[in-house]
Each structure stands twice: as structure tokens, then as C-alpha cells.
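dude i think i finally got it to work??
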Amino acid sequence: MSVYFHNTMLPALASALESLGLNDKQSSVLSGLLGSGSPMFVSAVARSAKLNRMTAYDILEELSDRGLVSRVKKDGAMRYQSIAVELLPAYVERQREALEETKRKLAEVVPQIALLRMHGKVLPKVQLFEGMEGVKQAYEDTLEGNKGKELYDLTGTDAIYQKMGIEWLEYYWKKRVRLNIKCTVIAPDNEWSRMMQKDYAKYDRTLKLMPKEFTFDSEIDIYDNKVGIFTFSQENPIAVIIEDQTIHDTVKTFFEFMLLHAK
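look at this
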């Protein structure tokens, strides 16, 4: 059963565990415990997950704090076991309910924060996002914070496909369509850009090409009174969102000029 579990069920399980917010190492440790079906020593967990013993121990403690792993002490030795497989759906449901409650509470305070922001009392007009998760959060603002329902993108398609991945990009595009946000894109002439151009109707976007020699590893998003700058050239990608009407209007003017000359 262990071989079947790891070789056949792991991809689907990894996706489910990722949806719980587990990182790769946490998912690997929990997968090993679930596949074992019986308590394991820290050393055995470490071998299964291909981690050193100290790292495996720290992760086991983290999973224990989340209620996904429990400790079993027998004959003076501590072992660890996963939550019962049949209890995972109920665990996911509890997490979903907790997230919905958090979302509800945040929705209640957003208008208050927006009011304070209008008076210039809190939140800077320039926000910096670091790392892949930070960049994804910045992209969410181009959708959730897009009251005008229009998005103008200057996109380095090679870099964004390599860094963000097609699965996340399709999630983003589908959400944009669901929110009725129209998108106009200028991108270098390459394979990825032409593929995006073919899907214009499916994802409600207009895409024009600029000469392929003008390539770049970043993206500029223009929406509402904001400009989002995303860079993918470094190992640790970053995003900056600038909220300023004058900067927005200036960058959009440049964009419209480029749009006239793109094909």
C-alpha cells in the first residue's frame, strides 16, 4: 500500500494539502505519515520525506499545532501519527468555515480602512510585496481592487509563464473573466504571446504584439488610479503597487502610445 500511495495518490494529495496552506516540506512529511498508517519515529519520517532529523522534528511540531499530527509515547519513545485519513474532509471543512469567518470580519473593516485612507491617516500609497506569495497577493489587487473593471498590461510573457506557471495563470484569467474585467495587453512577439492571442475570446482580452527584440522580465499593470509593477528576473520576485492618479495617467498615456504602434 505504501508504494501505491506514494506513486499513484501523491499528486492529488499534494494538491489537496497545498490548498490547506501547507508548504512542500510539510506536505511531504504529512504524506509519509498518511501513507504509513501507523506511528513513526522522527528518524523514519525524516528518511521518508528526505529531510534531516531536526527539520523533520520541527515540521512535525508545526503539523501537530495545526491538528494534523499527534504524538504517541510508547516504552519511553515518542512517535508521530497523522490524522485519520477519513477525518481529512471534516478537517478541510473546519478550515473553510474558519476562513469564511475571517473573510466576513475583514469585509466589515475594509470600508473603515478605506475611509481612513482617504483622509491620509493610514496605509502608504506605495506597497511592496516580496516572494511568490506576495506577488500573487499583489495580482489579486488588480482584480479585487479594480473598480473600473479595466486592466491594461505591458507583459513579459516568457518570464511570467516561467515564474507563475500555467495553472496559476489560468486561475487568474478565469477569475478576471468572472469579475467582468476587460484586459488589453501589449507583449513581445513570442510563442507564449501568440498562444495568449489565440485565446482572446475565451479570456476576454485584446493582445497586441511588439517586436520580439524588445523583451523584458517584468509586467506593468494599469488600473483604476494604480500602477502595479511586477518583476520576475530575480530568484525572489517582487511587486510594487503605486496608488497615485498622476502616475497612473502618465503610465497609461505611454501605454496608449505603444498600443498605437503594436500589431
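The chain has two domains: 2-87, 115-261.
im so relieved honestly
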